[in-house]
Amino acid sequence: MMRKKIKPAFKLWFQIGDNYVFGEGVYELLGQIQEKESISAAAKATGMSYRYAWALIKEAEKHLGESIVKTQKGGKHGGKSEMTSTGLSLVNNYKRLKEAMIKACEIE
Amino acid sequence: MMRKKIKPAFKLWFQIGDNYVFGEGVYELLGQIQEKESISAAAKATGMSYRYAWALIKEAEKHLGESIVKTQKGGKHGGKSEMTSTGLSLVNNYKRLKEAMIKACEIE
């Protein structure tokens, strides 16, 4: 059709009303938290500062009115962080939708 | 799942390499050009200035290396503008993809 190679691209996010709540950044961060059980290790893996990663989580939680990450205090290796069921649910929904959109782009 | 009402949202565009080429703005503008056969009427209908609409078209054409709108000069009512086959093809592809993404969001 076109002489030059045109490719579709998209950005996906979740919102409540008009407020941005959850997008690619938090999605990647939560995926890493699930894997590494540590917010600082997850931040490092996604190239974010700990401060930025923490703010991203808190901002999402503020809009949601629910926690998406929980951290157990203490223990042998310090606090272990993991997703709450709300966090997991958001990650799974985002992943499913993202995959459906990638698939739609590939058919294109 | 979540207590608050979370809704997916997305932004879709076409790119060549890393260059943004065609998105919602040009899509809406071309749709109006098809209907009104006039760039200025189309700009008005989409709430753009004529200058902005024109720049949007030219920017897309620059990256594509092809025209997306053609204007016949003269005639009883001045120049009549319409999409080229490249413009039409982009509009149709964008529309199909956008609809597929909306559908994916609705299943969500």
Can I get a quick summary?
Two copies of one chain form a homodimer. Chain A is an alpha+beta fold and 108 residues long.
Kindly describe this structure.
2 copies of one chain form a homodimer. The first copy, chain A, is an alpha+beta fold and 108 residues long. In chain A, 54% of the residues lie in helices and 21% in strands. Chain A has helices at residues 24-36, 39-45, 50-64, 85-107, and strands spanning 7-16, 19-23, 69-72, 80-83. Chain A has a two-stranded antiparallel ribbon. The longest helix of chain A is centred in the C-terminal third of the chain and has 23 residues, at 85-107. The first copy, chain A, starts with 6 loop residues before the first strand and ends with a helix. The interface between A and B is medium-sized, with 35 and 35 residues. β1 (7-16) of chain A pairs antiparallel with β1 (7-16) of chain B.
Structural class of chain A: alpha+beta
> Residue share in helices of chain A?
40-55%
Coarse morphology of chain A: globular
Determine the strand fraction of chain A and express it as a percent band: 15-25%
The biggest sheet of chain A, with number of strands, parallel, antiparallel or mixed sense and barrel status, is: 2 strands, antiparallel
Q: Could you give the order of the helices and strands of chain A?
A: EEHHHEEH
Count of alpha/pi helices of chain A: 4
Mean pLDDT of chain A: 91
What is the quaternary state of this protein?
homodimer
Specify which chain pair forms the largest interface: A-B, 35 and 35 residues
Adjacency order of strands in the biggest sheet of chain A: 1-2
Compute the gyration radius of chain A: what is it? 16 Å
Low-confidence runs of chain A: none
β-strand number of chain A: 4
C-alpha termini separation of chain A: 12 Å
